[in-house]
Amino acid sequence: MTLADIPATPGHPPVAVDPPPMDAADDLTVWPLSTTWLAHGDLAVGGVPLTDIADRFGTPAYLLDEADVRERCRTYLHAFPDTDVLYAAKAFLCRAMAHWVAEEGLGLDVCSAGELELAVTTGFPAARIVLHGNAKSPEDLRAALRLGVGRIVIDSASEIARLAAAVPPGSRQKVLVRVVPGIAAGGHSKIQTGTDDQKFGLSITDGSAQHAIARILDQPGLELVGLHCHLGSQITSDKPFLCAVRRLVGLMARIKDHHGITLPELDLGGGHGIAYRPGEDALDITTLARKVRAELAESCAAAGLALPRLAVEPGRAIAGPAGVALYRVLSVKRTSDRTFVAVDGGMSDNPRPALYGVRYLPRLIGRRSSAASAPVTVVGRHCEAGDVLAADIQLPSDTRPGDLLAVPVAGAYHLSMASGYNLVGRPPVVAVADGHARLLVRRESLDDFRSRDVGL
Questions:
Q1: Exposure of 95 by Cβ count < 10 A (0-12 exposed, 13-18 middle, 19+ buried)?
Q2: Fewest C-beta in 10 Å: which of 182, 281, 366, 418?
Q3: How far is the C-alpha of 300 from the C-alpha of 224, rounded, in Å?
């Protein structure tokens, strides 16, 4: 027996071993920063073996590396000094996540009263929260005003009067205007939000942004403090952001000329792309920050404007790489054309492959197979032909029921987009740090479904 064969005990992480011969599935570059190899084909994250997580909490389950999340927060703050870095809660939010990002000095970007209330009741300072949404409900606006959020992003002309009427007499609510700069960017057409042909924001091209700005300036209860834009998601080039800076500074210059005011804030949103498989492109945050700040300084100087306070809203880039999804293989079905490996989760806990074709790279954990790799399609347990988690990937040809599969880059837009389809129940979220694992979000149970079903 070697040290690597000795199981981990609380406070004493397992000893890492040399990795097996490298192939595409063995490349750990897209795994959480603390990921290490263990004996018998297992991996540890945060000093906790993944097989221990599966045994203790069941599958499917999400694992979140706390140290990884915190390190990515610090990376943003270091890359973007004198900038408001707001974590985009839509990527993934729970009380622990809100606590971590608050401790690291980030603000928060929320899209509903639900996200807002959870964050504030956790202790997150409301003044560091920005409320988004293309169709905010009256409840959303009331909650934002009652709790005292720092900023509300105006997304449509109809929202102006509704919000102004809700502001208590004698007070003012700081707002930003979400501008559509006419820039196509993002990993898929369904996540491109900077163009004129989608539901978000107010267009510069047709003048609706300028009209909304004039209306806001006429409302005594609203204080226009800046412009906002969000180009889309999974953007891996800095060029769209630089173009957005130029166009928004141009609009700020026109606002100064027409209304005599200089807006002090500019929020460039998020959408910073990450790699889901080894070798894929990811946005270089340090380079992005350097180029954005240089472009902003140059554009403002050319327009005769003072530098506005910059804000960015990373979500996926902080939570995504810190997460791992764990599944148990239920069946292996071989047809004349394909081999289907079915697991105990699927589109109810990760709809992203079905929505816009995200490609993951699961790997076998818990045992080291000597069998040759073979192409398989990993599918879920749900009653949809589109319930595919990973198509045409390589797994050992002896993959069998009972095996464990781990999927990296699972921290963003998995649980936050999960559903109750087939009443399977949403998975738990487990945090790992310093050799310890703790439950953050419990598994959804049949009792949860029964308690909501109140009619007969």
A1: middle
A2: 281
A3: 19
Helices (H), 21-156: 50-57, 66-79, 95-103, 113-122, 138-147
Can you tell me the distance from the alpha carbon of 164 to that of 266, in angstroms, rounded to the nearest whole number?
22
* Contacting residues for 298 by C-beta, under 8 A, at least 6 apart: none
**Whole-prediction pTM value?**
0.91
- The model's pLDDT over 213-270, given as tens digits with 9 standing for 90+, comes to 999 999 999 999 999 998 888 899 999 999 999 999 999 999 999 999 999 999 999 9
For residues 276 and 282, the answer to whether their CB atoms sit within 8 Å is: no
Q: In the Cβ-directed half-sphere of 374, how many Cα atoms lie within 13 Å? A: 17
**Contact assessment for residue 97 and residue 322, using Cβ atoms and an 8 Å cutoff:** no
DSSP lists the bridge partners of residue 227 as 177, 266
Which residue among the candidates 94, 111, 229, 383 is catalytic per the annotation? 383
Q: Tokens 């598994």 sit at which residue? A: 443
Amino acid symbol at 145: L
Tokens at residue 61, please?
């389950």
Backbone angles phi, psi at 6, to 5 degrees: -80, 125
Q: Amino acid identity, residue 146?
A: R
Tokens in use for 264? Answer: 């002090």
Residues recorded for the chain = 456
For the question of residue 229 being annotated catalytic, the response is: no
pLDDT tens string 177-207: 999 987 755 544 444 444 556 567 898 888 8
Tell me, what amino acid is at 376? V
Could you report the per-residue pLDDT of 61-75, keeping only the tens digit for each?
Answer: 999 999 999 999 999
- Rounded to an integer, what distance in angstroms lies between the CA atom of residue 386 and that of residue 351? 9
At 248, list the tokens: 């928004």
Would you report the helix, strand and coil content of the chain in percent, each value rounded to 5?
35, 25, 45
By the 8 A CB rule, do 373 and 360 touch? no
* H-helix or E-strand spanning residue 353: helix 352-356
